[in-house]
Amino acid sequence: MNRVTSLFGIKYPIIQAGMVWCSGWRLASAVSNSGGLGLIGSGSMHPETLQEHIRKCREATPNSFGVNIPLMYPQIEEIMQIIVEEGVKIVFTSAGSPKKWTGWLHDHGVTVAHVVSSSRFAAKAEEAGVDAIVAEGFEAGGHNGREETTTLCLVPAVREATTLPLIAAGGIATGEAMLAVRALGAEGAQIGTRFALTAESSASEAFKKYCLHLEEGDTRLLLKKLSPVRLVRNHFRDAVEAAEAIGATEEELRILLGRGRAKLGIFEGNLEEGELELGQVSSLLRGKDIQSVAAVMKELMEEYRRTLDRMRDRL
To answer: Given Cys at both, which of 152, 192, 265, 301 links 17, Cβ 3.0 to 4.6 Å?
Structure first.
């Protein structure tokens, strides 16, 4: 037990990231049933869809689960009202300032963790009253910090900047990596890519199979003039890189991105024209089969314990 497991009422200090088009009730409940903390990713859901996923998740697991909420969400008031009405007890906020909503969520009995990409934002999140910090490094999939600080550098910097329970994210897909971030001061690990490619993820099978064959360098952080996002190589990414190489404006990039591009790629499986978001650590998963969440959790904890024993022997 540590502060992260105690705060969320979980067995293992493993949090599943709330990823668009991947993190529905099936994935969240499977992680929670396996001893971690599952998160429903509200970023790709209409309010009524989120409500349905919350209810189905509650039916599928007796354990703690939460909802990830990007604070830039256009219907944020409706989302927050659903959180309260449905009795959700854990919320992870991201992509915005937690100052406006943290106190309100606390007043309704909700524990709040906030995702940051710098030690400066971590200090501001603590001032806003959040209960825990997620320090997400440059390696992470999806939307990312413009600072491009790696997890190895970010976690100790955030640890120095805040006294709150600290969760590391970005580039973590193995038990060895979990132990490494613990050594840097994190008390838990948030894992996205590894869970995005499991059987219970709502991503398309085509997306999962494609991403389990990626090599080093096949993901890249782009669209920094809009909102930085790590993209997998395909025709759409080639078009983005070509546009940025000739100095495309923010508006030109917005037109190129269009609407529903992530759904097209991740959920519908259009591997060439879709926006495929995934972490840099995907290359370490090359050649693996699509595993169940239970198998992944078992493997993570076995690797963690084995590595810990090995390090004790060496030291």
So the answer is: 192
Q: What percent of the chain has pLDDT over 90?
A: 87
Q: Which two tokens stand for residue 273?
A: 């024209």
**CATH number of the structural domain 3-202:** 3.20.20.70
The packing angle between helices 250-257 and 235-245, to 10°, is: 170
Please state the domain extents for the chain.
3-202
Reported in sequence order, the residue ranges of the chain that DSSP labels E, i.e. its strands, are 14-16, 38-41, 65-70, 90-94, 111-116, 132-136, 142-143, 166-169, 188-191, 219-222, 229-232
Query: Which residues touch 122 (CB under 8 Å, ≥6 apart)?
Result: 116, 133, 135, 158, 161, 162
H, E, C per residue of 165-182: CEEEECCCCCHHHHHHHH
Q: Look up the pTM and report it.
A: 0.94
Are 282 and 209 in contact by the 8 Å Cβ rule? The answer is no
- Give every CB contact of residue 208 below 8 A, 6+ residues apart in sequence: 196, 197, 201, 290
Question: Three-class SS of residue 158?
Answer: helix
Instruction: Compute the C-alpha angle 91/168/5, nearest 5°.
Output: 60
Place of tokens 């599928």: 60
- For residue 165, give both structure tokens: 């329970």
Tokens of 51: 């409500």
Structure tokens at 304: 């963690």
Q: Whose structure tokens read 């703690």?
A: 64
Residues 87-117 pLDDT 10s? 999 999 988 889 889 999 999 999 999 999 9
